[in-house]
Amino acid sequence: MSLLFKNVKELIFDIDQFIDTVEQGVLVFKEGVVNYIVGERASFSDKILRIDKLEAEADKLQKKIDDEFYRHSILPQNASDIEEMLDKLDEIIDISKVNLYQFEDELPFIPKELKSEFIRLTETSTEAALAVFPASRSFFREPLKVKDMLSKVYFYEKETDKIARNIKRKLFHDMKDLDLSQKIHLRYFTLHIETVSDKAEHLADLLSILALKMSI
């Protein structure tokens, strides 16, 4: 085995670990939001601790990968593209952590009429992110398959938008008992949850371009 091949193999292994860590962060975010909505505060607090650890682990892995790129001059022609992809993956776990902390810091009141819809919004937004991870892994092995793997990302991102719009319409058109400040507060939390699918869509757009470049 050549040293270069060994280094590339180790690099891809570390990238897989990085993607796994980001994926776990998204799952913890989903569970944490659902814990908050249904009033399971002890479980919610546990998710805060877990996403902290996962985000720190993702940062550590990303730094290790960056070091491997430059210390061993691995894939120099693709290094900047791959680092951009890793940055967008990191944004997904970063925004998941930030959004979960928003629930802890601001304690939004979610009326019972909207709880199931906020849970659906969370599940659908995170499905968009969960759909982008297999394509991210395939990027290094079978780049020609990546584009076909991204359709679910766009599907769930659009579904997230639909659910979010429906929540906003209910807030401002139907829920007369809520103060305007409460409506605006919940509107922002709708946007917070949506950002996870938005970040997944941005990564999917980038992967489409990079996979095409890698296959030429």
Layout of helices and strands:
Layout: H1 3-38, H2 41-72, H3 79-106, H4 112-138, H5 146-149, H6 151-174, H7 180-215
Helix pairs in contact: 1-2, 1-3, 1-4, 2-3, 3-7, 4-6, 4-7, 6-7
User: What is the CATH topology classification name?
Assistant: Methane Monooxygenase Hydroxylase, Chain G, domain 1
Please write the string of helix (H) and strand (E) elements.
HHHHHHH
CATH superfamily, called what?
A: Phosphate transport system protein phou homolog 2, domain 2
Distance between the termini: 26 Å
Strand content: under 5%
Low-confidence stretches: none
Q: What oligomeric state do these chains adopt?
A: single chain
Give the helix tally: 7
Average of pLDDT: 91
CATH architecture: Up-down Bundle
What overall form do the CA principal axes indicate?
elongated
Major β-sheet, in short?
none
Q: Fraction of residues in helices?
A: over 70%
Rg is 19 Å
Helix/strand/pairing category: mainly alpha
User: How many structural domains does the protein architecture include?
Assistant: 1
Query: What is the level 1 CATH name?
Result: Mainly Alpha
Counted beta strands = 0
